[in-house]
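User: Could you walk me through two proteins back to back? I'd like the raw sequence and the C-alpha cells for each, with a short line separating them so I can tell where one ends and the next begins.

Assistant: Of course. Protein one, sequence then structure:
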Amino acid sequence: MATKTVINPDLGTGFKYFEGSGVNELIHSAGVVVDTSEVTFVSCSGKTATNDQGETVEERDTIVGVGDIKEQTSQVLRNLQGTLRAAGATFDDVVRMRVFVTQPFTDLDFGKVHEARAPFFNKEHYPASTLVIVYALARPDALIEIDCDAAILKNGG
C-alpha cells in the first residue's frame, strides 16, 4: 500500500507578494512524497530564489541575488535541498529536473547556471534535465525556477 505525505502545505503564508491578488494562500505545497514498499517518490514544486531559510516571513518572501543568475541558481538549489531533506532525500536521489529561465538568456548565463549546479551534484548521480527559456516567471525579479523529482530506492536497490 502506498502513502502520500505533503511537505509544507502552508508554503507562502503571510507573503506580501500576493497582496492585491485575492489569493490568501497558495494552493500547492513545497512537495509531495509517495511512499511504496519499493520506492519513495518525491516531487518538489518549482522554486525561485526566495530565501526559504530566512528567519522572518519578509526574508522568506524576498528574492535574493537580483540580477545574478548564478546566485539565484545556488539559492534555488538550496531551497530544493531543504524540500528534499524534509522528504529524506538528497540530490543523489534526484532523477529529473526542469529548469525555467527568463529572457534574455545567453551562453554566459548557461555557463553560470551549470557552474552553480556543480557543487550540488555528483557525476554518478546526474539527473535527467530540461532547460526552457520563458518570457517571464511569476516573480518579476526571478531569473530562474527549478522543480525536480527524486526516487529513493529501498532494499538495496
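----
Protein two, same layout:
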Amino acid sequence: MSLVTWQEEALDNFFDSDRFFNVKPNRWYTESETVVPKVNVTENENSFHLEAETPGMQDKDINIEVHNGILTIQGYKENESDRNKENYHIHEFNKQSFERSFKLSDLIDTGKVAAKIENGVLRVDLPKHEQIKPRKIEVQSNS
C-alpha cells in the first residue's frame, strides 16, 4: 500500500473549470489589475538604490512623489488595443496599475531623489545627506 497526499485544489479544478483553457472563473483577469512590483534596495556609502519591476511601462506611465518622508511610486498603463477588432476569448492586456510606498530614513536627502526607467526596471536613487557620509580623519603625530 502506498501513501498518497491529497490536494484539495485538484478537486476544485475538476468541478469548477471554464470550457476555454481550463481557467477557473474566479481567476479571470479584472478590468484593471493592481499589482505590487517586486523591489530590491541596496546601499553604498553615498546613497540607497531602489529597483522595482515595471514590465511594459515607460516614464510617462510612472509617478513618483516624496512627501513627509514617504516615497510613493505609482504606475498606470492602459493598453490601446481595441476589443471590438478581434474575437477575443480572453483579453488580459488591458489595464495595469500599481502603488507602493516606503518610509524613508532621515539619512536621505529627499531634495536630490532621482529616477529612471530602462528595460522594465525602475531605478530610484536616494542620496544620503552630505553630513551623514563617513569622513576620514587623519591622525597627526607630534614627531
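The first strand starts at residue 32 and ends at 35.

Let me know if you want the two compared in more detail.
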